Amino acid sequence: MPWRIGILGAGPGVAALHLPVLRGLPDLFDVVHIADAGSGRSRDLAEPCGARWSSGDRELLADPEVQVVAVCSPPSEHARHILAAVAAGKRAIFCEKPLATTRQDASRAIDACRAAGAILLVGTNHVFDAAWGRARHHLAALDGGVRAVSVTLALPPNDRYHRLVAEGAPFQAAAHGRPDLGDPAVAAGVLRQLLIGLAIHDLPAVRGIAPGIDEVVYAQLAPPIGYLVGYRAGSVLVQLALTMLPEGPDALWRMAIATSHDRIEVNFPPAFVHAGSAVISARADDGQRTEYGRDPVDGYVAEWRALALCLETKVPVEYDELLADAHYAIDLADAAAAKILEAGRQ
Amino acid sequence: MTPQGPRAGVFTRLPAYVAAAAGLPASARLADDVCGAVAVIPGSGNWWAGLLDARDGGAAAVVIADPAALPREVFAAGAWSGGIPVVVERPGLRADMVADAVRARRGTLPRVVTVECAASAALLGAVIRDGLGWARSLAGSPLTLRAGVAAAQGTMALLDSPVAGGSRLPSTMVGTVLEGPAAGGVLQVLALGEVRTEVAIDHAAGWAKLETSTAEGALTAPERYEAPARLALRRAIEATSSGREVADLPELLEDQLLAHEVTSARATR
Q1: Do B154 and A222 touch (CB under 8 A)?
Q2: How confident is the prediction for chain B on average, in pLDDT?
Q3: CB 3.0 to 4.6 Å from A30: which of A2, A16, A244, B105, for a disulfide?
Q4: Which pLDDT band, with edges at 50, 70 and 90, does A176 fall under?
Q5: Which positions 107-166 of A are in contact with B (Cβ < 8 Å)?
Q6: Is the ipTM value over 0.90, yes or no?
Q7: What are the distances in angstroms from CA A227 to CA A48, A187, A220, B108, B141?
Q8: Domains and CATH numbers, chain A
Q9: CA distances in angstroms from B265 to A178, A302, B157, B259, listed in the order given
Q10: Whole-prediction pTM value?
Q11: Are B136 and B188 in a shared domain?
């Protein structure tokens, strides 16, 4: 019997991503309820699945059919929805990244799941990408240590990829006017949001090879919307770059890891599309290059399969790791935002 | 230089340049005297002193072959008054490859430039210098260091350069020490924006890639098969006959000074 899912949230991520993925895994999951936050979009998404729909979270959480809650609400609501799902006695929770936007919320969410024995999976799809697993094995097999990590993102509008996996455009969020980025407080807030919302795709992976944040060397917003953040994690230098473009070439989403002897490059496919795993190339210390082929399963499918595995085999949830991942991202976002405020004061 | 015109004298003992002169039979001949010739200065050791000697000896032009990173005080103490063309052979920053990269962008400035460098400790300074040269070329204006940190096995920096309208174009650089038998230098440059340029150079592997991408697709530049020495010599001979100014030396010095700043950085932002 497939696990019965209730989805909190009816935005583009659900329409273009989670719903098609879940419907492609009918042996594992059955979507039985979708709730929006008052937009009315849940009905359009639920009806074709034969699922119920509602507004707000109460009806869905009270629905006895719902065994697993997918938290796909705005990031600031994630922790509250996890707590509510645990309080409603739900067995498992899939939380779209990030887990939470503050340290306290992250800790509360993890504590609640741990106390209730609830399964929790955070949908950091890059971490579930088979290619990342291969890169980790490659790193583990090396003699030398990691010296630098660069995560570089150049992203055209998401709409380009939404259109390849769903209908009913436009999927772009409505523009709310351009924030005054000349105001350091506003700029710091935008940077924090970008790090917690976008850099979070890769920060758990980065934490695995560059744990700790000893010093933020620079942090600034990049044009037209994006960031440049450099920090030191022990002896490892980490560089994060994002630019979100109004037009341009296909998405570049790359993590490059420089070790004492090798260079490993992980090129992830654009968000939303199902183009298989990332592609890895490795340059060895003799100059030889190896390119690993794509795995047909992408990180989005892999993360849901991982949740099914947890449900079926009672694989222990690594609550401490999930919390450490969340705290790492939040600490980095806070330190980077503080750097911008400090520059503004000077 | 036409096949009928006088052939430029080339004063060198470097095998690569002797071969390059042989590959330019219509425009070059080997010379016994530096005076009036294109003098080729080996880039190893104190090439700055060699450059000054060649100028004082009456060279018509100078080629600096694959210059090593010099300590700041070496060339800061001297002065280059110009007067003769100086062409610099920079394997990490080939003039023809840079021209290909800039031309393919069709005037579109990047939004952000990122540079990653890795090389043996002895070569890292030169590779960082060339990486910064790529950032300068793609940004189209000089870079200023804004923040950086130098660690034991690497260095990281944020830089920017002016663009029209008073805004600044940011660049980042990270350089790490590479060990092993093929630590000759790896350079990876990304100019991100509506037009994306990707440069990848691996000296030890003898590999270079230049790709320009837009919404329409990607254009891979053809491999440049001309030997770096022949390219440098040809440019020097062309500069002496045309009288056209060559910016190689001031650009090299600018990149070198910035590389010094970056590798000793402690500024933060």
Answers
A1: no
A2: 92
A3: A2
A4: low
A5: 144, 147-148, 150, 152, 154, 156
A6: yes
A7: 39, 10, 6, 20, 21
A8: 3-123 (3.40.50.720), 127-297+329-345 (3.30.360.10)
A9: 35, 43, 8, 10
A10: 0.93
A11: yes
